[in-house]
Every structure is written in structure tokens, then in C-alpha cells.
Write a structure and sequence with these properties.
The protein has 663 residues and is mainly alpha-helical. It is built from 41 helices and two strands. Among the domains are: 100 residues, Serine Threonine Protein Phosphatase 5, Tetratricopeptide repeat (Alpha Horseshoe), CATH 1.25.40; 71 residues, Methyltransferase, Methionine Synthase (B12-binding Domains), Chain A, domain 1, CATH 1.10.1240; 173 residues, Lysozyme, CATH 1.10.530. It has a two-stranded antiparallel sheet with strand order 1-2. The longest helix is centred in the last third of the chain and has 22 residues.
Length: 663
């Protein structure tokens, strides 16, 4: 861009800045624009410091841009930057990018010298470090990385040589190699599965295209499978993987195919197939899922499989199977609040009251979905914790003047939210409760509500729920909620999950504003209200956004049995789906929530409902029963008509008004 054009842009950006801006702000904004465009010359002009709180950013962007040009990387310049800005987020990010650059080149000498200075290495960098240790002849590295064989699914390219070294040194057996092929095929990582299959002993390797064919068209593969398929390990494994792939689309059909060949499979192989069929059936909420899981016996299962085994048993009302499924989980998974709660419920249903009490006690006392439910099973309602003592002026000033906090605040002022959020989160790492509470208070005062919640949410011993569960815009939200006969705590609970009260929030699928309304849904609701001239820009206006969002909440609530659990699911995933997830019999609300097939929506509904209890305690002075609010989900009537089929963006196959961008 020519200098005159840059001057025009600087003037426009400067005029658009809010009051209180720094005289050097325009340089930072121009440097950011140059970085986006890859204009190295302009970045070089803008990089020299001027005393601005964000001085390191133009230089950081220039060095990052340099790393993208592999033939022009100056290690000395990078080292100099890292030495001048130790402990900063840009230094951490630049060091990580530099390490990645060196790892790809196999430049392991300087890589090793820098790796230990990185605070939070990602998996690919850990694998490059393992490569460096392998190259140096470190005798311990393979034993240390062997667990990656079993845990990595999305495998960074840097990790492939490490996994190959495990095979080369016979640190994994052929059975373990086949196990990895299965896991990759289950996760739809056919290319990775093909690569691992090529490392198998020659007499066990499948044909070059066999895995692709079994994955692409499992029915055809099974139809054309040789009669003597079971004579070889590769033949049996391909049959298992084809059945597992078919189960994704048609569990009943996969089971029928399985019955045709099960006598030629070993007991372990039969258990594997039945476990796969049960898993896929459970995600489709099929009533046969629990039976198939029972038939699978004690076959090893992934964490996701194990979770769906519990969910299938819950929907079947089979408390003995719930208990067995939770107890079969790994100790780490079993200790999660979700499964601790359901184990307690199973123990309770089976008459083991003391075991149930112990399970509930392990997770009670927190403002989360299962902790609140556990408290209620113990006869206690949710109560707000004692409020932390006020932040002193000295504590507040110390936090406000922390370099990372100052940079974050400046970045938010310039509407560089991505960089501001990263700086903020980095500045809060390893901080004590007093710093976190002071940071939350500062963010609240500045109207950066999502970061206020983020900071207050991290406290461990001292808490301030008025910051953790902020209730801004009350003059807008409360009248809208009351006029539509909505529980204000539920509205706030949903909004906290949707946008964290960021008025300009925009999700990856296009949902906008405080209540994260999809443009098509906003248009539909506006039409129902008789509002003409709809423009998607309306969604950025807080008043209009709240009006449309609360109206939509009332509509889905009325269309879904006036049940807040169904309405919350509908807000995120669409009313049609919320209806489809019902059962043929009445279902406990908590079981419905736990068995929602979409991970995002399942997590969303649980958080919204738990949020609603905390907000009720804050706004009304007392908390209602979460279990009572979850209630019972009426049996499905087989109909998907109503609001779900009428609202654009809210039907069977598209997200509804909200997209859960608050996380």
C-alpha cells in the first residue's frame, strides 16, 4: 500500500478510536494491518518502539512474518526479542513458532536449547523434542513416548517419526498396531490408519486399497469378502472395521451382517464388533443399544464408547448396567463428576445408600450441574459461597499495572479482541485468588464482561459470584424476560453461555450479539413480531438482540412442553432435534440432558441449567431445586411439527438461535 493510502487508513482508524486512546495507537493498528497483508517493508518501518504499551507487537508481528519466509530467518533477532520480553505471551508464541520452524528443518541443536524455556508446549513440539532426543541417542525416550501410541488420534506430522521408531525398535506388538489401526478407522482417519497398517509385519498387511474400500463402502466390502476371510489376521480385521464403519450409518444392518459371520470370529473380535454397534446405536438413541453393549461384555472401550455405554443404560432405566458401565471405566474417567454422580444414583437405586452418599459427597459443593444435583441428593440446596473480602486499592493497582494486564486492556481498547483475550489469559496463569478477583473487578469496570467472568471463574478458595456470574444489561434483560413470562435466571444463564455478555460476539456459524441469534432466525422472529425492514445489523444492537432472543425463547418454550431443558437444547441445536431426542417413554430431565447426542449441545444444556440456578440465587436470594427444574421429559409423540419446522435456522439439521459462542 502506498504511503498516502496508509495515511488515510491511519486517520480513519484514529478517528474511530474510543476516548482515552494513546497517541501511538494508530501505529499499532497500521502494523496489525500490515501483518495481515504480509507487508514486511511496512512492518519494518512500524516496528521501532515509541514508548507505547504495545510496543512489542509490531516487532512480534514482523518476526512472525519472517518465520513464514524460511530462507530469511534471523535467529539472533528472535533471541534478542525473547530476551527483552521474557514471560510475555508474544514471546511464548514466537518461541513456539520458532521451535516449530527449527523442528521442521531438523535443526535440533538450537531447538533443544530453547525447548525448556517454553511454558506450554503443544503436542507437535513435544514430538519434535522427542525426535531431537532420538537423534542424540537418548535411551529413555521411547519408553516415555510409548503412551502416545494409544492416546494420539489426530497425529501431528512431527509425531509420525516417533511412532515409527516405536515400531522399528519393537516397542509395540502387532496386536497393538492393529489396535491403533482400529482406533484411527473409528475416528475416520483413514490416511493415518493406512500408514500404520503399512508398518505391520509383511504377512499381516492388508492390500494397499483395502482399508479405503472398507471405509468408503462397507456393505459392498462385506458382500465381496472372501469366504475364507477369517483365515488371515488382515481378513478378520478388515471385516471388523467394515462392520464398525457400517454401524455408523446403520447399526441394525451391521448387527444383521455380524450374525452372518460371528461364528468365524474369536470371542474378543465378537466383543469388539458388538461394542462398536452398541456405541453407534447409543449415539442414535436406539433402544437396542443397551442390549448390544451387554452382549459386548468386558471388551475394551474408548472413553467415548464407555460414556455412551452409561448413557444407553440410563435411557433403558437399567441401573445395574449403569453401575457396571461406570465401574468398568478407567479410574481417571470414573472420577469425573458426571460418572461419579451416575454411579451414586445407580448405587442408590440398587439400595446401596452408603456407597451412594460417598459418591455424592466426592463431587458436591460446586456450582456445576452434577455438583448441584449431588448436593440435592444429599438433602442440601445450592447456596452461594461466602463472598471474598473486598479487594484493596493496593491489590487493585498492582493487578492493573501488571504488564500483561496493561497490554490486554490496550488491545481490547483497539478492538483487537483475539490478541487481547490471549494476553489476558496468559497474564492470569499461575495467579492467586486475590489477583484473579482484582482482574475480574477491573474487567467489569471496563465493560470487558467475558474476561471478568473468565478471571472470577478461576478462583480456588476465595470467590465472588457477583463477578463470576455477572448480570449486566439488567435494565434491558429483566423487562424483556418478565414481559414474556420467562425466568430471568434462565435467560441470564443462557446468555452467559452464549456470549459472556459481549455485544459484538459472532460465532463461527454466524450467530450474533448478546443472545447469539442466527440471522435467518432473527428475520423469522422479527416477521412474527410484525417488524418490517429487517436487517442483519439489528442483531448487533443489544436492545433488539435481547428482544428477539427472549421472544424466540418464549416461542420454543411453548412449542416444547414449556420445558426449559428442551427449550435450552432447541436454542442451541434446533427444536426439531430437541423433539427427536425424546424417548418413547417419559425420561428424567437429567438423563435427557446427559444423552443428548451432540457434545456441544449436551455440555451447553447442562451449563445453562446450572447457570440458571446460580443466577436465581443471586437475583432472587434463593436457589430453586435443579432436579425439580429438570423435571421429566414427556414421551415422544412421534411428531416433529411446530416451531421446529417453521423457524429458519432452527429446524432438524441446522443450529437454532444460539450457537454457544460464550466459551
Amino acid at each position: 500500500m502506498k504511503n498516502s493510502a496508509w495515511a488515510v487508513l491511519a486517520a480513519v482508524l484514529w478517528m474511530a478510536m474510543p476516548a482515552g486512546g494513546d497517541p501511538g495507537d494508530e501505529r499499532i493498528l497500521l502494523a496489525k494491518d500490515a501483518a495481515r497483508g504480509g507487508d514486511r517493508g511496512r512492518l519494518a518501518q512500524l516496528a521501532p518502539p515509541t514508548g507505547h504499551v504495545l510496543d512489542l507487537y509490531p516487532e512480534y508481528w514482523a518476526l512472525s512474518n519472517m518465520l513464514a519466509r524460511p530462507n530469511d530467518v534471523d535467529y539472533a533477532r528472535i533471541r534478542d526479542f525473547l530476551q527483552r520480553y521474557p514471560g510475555s505471551w508474544p514471546a511464548e508464541k514466537l518461541r513456539a513458532d520458532w521451535l516449530r520452524f527449527m523442528g521442521k528443518r531438523g535443526d535440533f541443536g538450537p531447538f533443544v536449547a530453547e525447548f525448556d524455556k517454553l511454558e506450554q508446549p503443544e503436542q507437535d513440539l513435544k514430538c519434535y523434542y522427542s525426535q531431537a532426543r532420538l537423534a542424540s541417542g537418548d535411551p529413555d525416550v521411547l519408553a516415555e513416548v510409548r503412551p502416545l501410541w494409544f492416546s494420539l488420534v489426530d497425529t501431528p506430522e512431527a509425531c509420525v517419526p516417533v511412532l515409527q521408531a516405536l515400531v522399528r525398535e519393537a516397542m509395540v506388538s502387532p496386536d497393538e498396531m492393529w489396535g491403533r489401526v482400529r482406533r484411527l478407522m473409528e475416528a475416520k482417519r483413514v490416511t493415518g490408519a493406512r500408514a500404520v497398517a503399512s508398518w505391520l509385519p509383511a504377512d499381516q498387511q492388508p492390500g494397499p486399497a483395502d482399508l479405503d474400500k472398507a471405509a468408503a463402502n462397507p456393505s459392498t466390502w462385506l458382500d465381496r469378502m472372501p469366504i475364507n476371510f477369517s483365515a488371515s489376521r488382515a481378513g478378520r480385521e478388515l471385516a471388523l472395521m467394515a462392520l464398525a464403519r457400517l454401524a455408523r450409518d446403520d447399526p441394525q444392518g451391521a448387527y444383521a451382517r455380524y450374525l452372518g459371520i460371528n461364528e468365524r470370529l474369536s470371542a474378543a473380535e465378537r466383543g469388539y464388533v458388538l461394542g462398536q454397534i452398541g456405541w453407534q446405536a447409543a449415539t442414535k438413541l436406539m433402544p437396542d443399544a443397551n442390549t448390544w453393549f451387554r452382549m459386548a461384555g468386558d471388551t475394551p472401550m474408548s472413553e467415548d464408547q464407555a460414556a455412551w455405554r452409561v448413557r444407553a443404560a440410563l435411557r433403558a432405566g437399567d441401573w445395574k448396567a449403569v453401575k457396571g458401565a461406570v465401574e468398568a471405566m478407567s479410574a481417571e474417567q470414573r472420577s469425573q463428576p458426571d460418572w461419579t454422580y451416575w454411579l451414586g444414583r445407580a448405587q442408590q437405586a440398587l439400595g446401596n445408600r452408603e456407597a451412594a452418599r460417598k459418591a455424592f459427597e466426592r463431587i458436591a459443593g460446586h456450582p456445576t450441574f452434577y455438583a448441584i444435583l449431588a448436593d440435592e441428593e444429599l438433602g442440601r440446596s445450592f447456596t452461594l459461597p461466602r463472598k471474598a473480602r473486598p479487594i484493596s486499592t493496593e491489590e487493585f493497582d498492582q493487578t492493573r499495572n501488571a504488564p500483561g494486564i496493561q497490554r490486554a486492556v490496550a488491545l481490547f481498547r483497539l478492538d483487537l479482541r483475539t490478541e487481547g483475550t490471549r494476553e489476558w489469559n496468559w497474564a492470569l496463569r499461575n495467579r492467586d485468588d486475590r489477583f484473579l478477583l482484582a482482574a475480574a473487578q477491573l474487567a467489569q469496570q471496563l465493560g470487558i464482561y467475558d474476561r471478568a467472568i473468565n478471571a472470577a471463574d478461576k478462583t480456588r478458595n476465595e470467590h465472588d459470584y457477583s463477578l463470576r456470574y455477572l448480570a449486566p444489561y439488567r435494565e434491558r434483560i429483566e423487562p424483556n424476560a418478565k414481559s414474556r413470562d420467562l425466568d430471568t435466571g434462565w435467560v441470564y444463564g443462557l446468555m452467559r453461555q452464549e456470549s459472556r455478555f459481549v455485544t459484538a460476539a459472532r460465532s463461527g456459524v454466524g450467530a450474533q450479539g448478546l443472545m447469539q441469534i442466527m440471522p435467518a432466525t432473527g428475520k423469522w422472529v422479527a416477521g412474527k413480531l410484525g417488524m418490517s425492514g429487517y436487517n442483519v445489523g439489528w442483531l448487533q444492537d443489544p436492545d433488539t438482540n435481547v428482544m428477539l432472543g427472549t421472544t424466540y425463547m418464549r416461542m420454543v418454550l411453548e412449542g416444547l412442553d414449556n420445558h426449559p431443558v428442551l427449550a435450552s437444547a432447541a436454542y442451541n441445536a434446533g427444536p426439531g432435534r430437541a423433539k427427536r431426542w425424546k424417548d418413547a417413554k417419559p425420561l428424567e430431565g437429567a438423563i435427557y440432558a446427559e444423552s443428548i447426542p451432540f457434545n456441544e449441545t449436551r455440555d451447553y444444556v447442562k451449563k445453562v441449567m446450572a447457570n440458571s440456578i446460580v443466577y436465581s440465587a443471586l437475583l432472587d436470594g434463593r436457589a430453586p431445586s435443579l432436579k425439580a427444574r429438570l423435571g421429566t421429559i414427556a414421551a415422544s409423540d412421534g411428531s416433529l411439527s411446530g416451531v421446529g419446522s417453521a423457524a429458519p435456522g432452527a429446524g432438524l439439521d441446522t443450529p437454532s438461535a444460539g450457537a454457544g459462542s460464550g466459551e
